[in-house]
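User: My instructor asked us to take a sequence, write out its structure as tokens, and then describe one feature of it. I'm not sure where to start. Here is the sequence I was given:
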Amino acid sequence: RASSTPVPPEAPAVPWSPTVRTALRAFLDTGAATLALQPDRLPLTARDFALFAGADFPGVLEAIRHSAPPALPALVELATRLLRDALAEPRDVDDLHLLGYHLRRAVAAAVIRHASADLLAAGLSQPRVPFCWITFGSSARGDLLTLEAPSLAAVYDDSHPDFHPLDPAFFAALAGETLARFHSLGLSGDGFD
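Assistant: Let's start with the prediction itself. The structure tokens for your sequence are:
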């Protein structure tokens, strides 16, 4: 049964009567809250999907993405349980690799966001140079069926005119705080560069 929720114009289209696998991949790949079932663009919401699938993967991802620090441990525990419980047969492995990738990515973003906010609250200055995080290894490839701390590196432009000599200290402190938070969640991994 399709939801009575209106379909947003940007909702990704999926074939009528999608499998759980097809719908899950569409929700994960697009991050959409609603899919449009073709040919009539009938809505399939993430909530409807969760009721049908028996597990709210899109909802857990959304909760992790917007979590406050105290909520993150329970959400990581829930995500770990969802991954473990969803493995019912060998063909589920590919889907769980994809789900695990998205869950690890959401947890890493939340941990980095929380750690950064704490460093800024402690008086460190946000670097003004462009920077990004890069994930390496099995976590980046989506090869894992479990949640663990990814191998991360902060990459920044030290030739940028806004580069300050203290910027590397901020990134080192952020990496240390992020790693400590991963460990406090019971997640270990290869570490940071």
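For the description part of your assignment, you could build on this observation: The two ends are 49 Å apart (CA to CA). Try explaining in your own words what that tells you about the chain.
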